[in-house]
User: Fold Phosphonate ABC transporter ATP-binding protein from Microbacterium sediminicola.
Amino acid sequence: MVIRFDNVSVRYGTGTLGLDGIDLEIPDGQFVVVVGLSGAGKSTLVRTINGLVPVTSGTLTVGDQQVSGARARDLRTLRAKVGMIFQSFNLVSRTSVMNNVLVGRLHQTSTLRSLLGWWKPEDREIAFQALERVGIVEKAWVRASQLSGGQQQRVAIARVLAQEPSVILADEPVASLDPPTANQVMRDLRRINRELGITTIVNLHFLDLARTYGDRIIGMRGGKVVFDGTGADADDAV
Ligand code: ADP
Ligand code: ADP
Assistant:
C-alpha cells in the first residue's frame, strides 16, 4: 500500500513534538529504513501509520484509508493489514511457537474459537506457511521461551506474515540482537519484501545496517526528515 504523509505533526500530551511537519510518500512495495538517534521520532513515525499514535495536524493516508482524524473503530480494517515487529519480540513466552504465530490470525476468527484453540484448518495452514517462510517450521511445537533471540524475532515475523499484511512496520527489530543475528533478521525482512512485495519500514539505530539493506534511507532528527536518499550518499543521514 502507498503511504502518504502531508505536513504531518504529532504533539504528545506532555507537549513534546514527536513529528514536526513530515512530508513523505512511500510507494507500494518499497523497503525503507528510517535512521536516527534515540528520540529522533522514528517510533512515532511508524506508530502513526497504524493509528497507534494519533496525528495532531496534517494528512496521513495509508492505501485508501485516511488515518489522520479517523476514529479507532474506522482503523480496525487498516490495523489488520499493518503488521508490527518490535525490539522486544513481544511473544507469549510460555506457549508454543505455533500458538504465537496463530495470534496473527486473531482478526480472522472469533475470540471464543481462539480461546478454545479451535483454529480453522486454513488458519493453521497459513501459520505453517509463515513459519516455513522464515525457516523455523521445525520449531512449531517448541515453547517460544526456549528459542534464541534471533529465532524469537523470526517467530514475530511469522506472526506478522500470518496476518497477510499489506504493510510491515519494524521498530528497532534488531536492537537487542548480536551483529550476525541482526544481519540475518534484516536479510529475512528484505527477502520477504522482495518475495511478497509488502511495503516495509524498518527503524534502525545504525547507519551501516541501513546502508546494507535499505532501498531508501530516511534520516530523522528532532521529529523532522533530515535525509531522504540511498545508501551511497547517506553519510549525513544520522
Ligand atoms: P525514536 O523512536 O527515534 O527514539 P520517538 O518517536 O520514540 O523517537 O520519540 C520522539 C520524541 O517524542 C522524543 O522526544 C520522545 O521522548 C517523545 N515521546 C515518544 N513517545 C512519547 C509519549 N508516549 N509521550 C510523550 N512523549 C513521547
Ligand atoms: P524507543 O525504543 O523508541 O526509544 P523508548 O524507550 O523511548 O522507545 O520508549 C518506550 C515507550 O515509552 C514508548 O511507548 C514511548 O512511546 C514511551 N515514551 C518515550 N518517551 C516518552 C516520554 N518522554 N514521555 C512518555 N512516554 C514516553
Observations:
- The first strand starts at residue 3 and ends at 11.
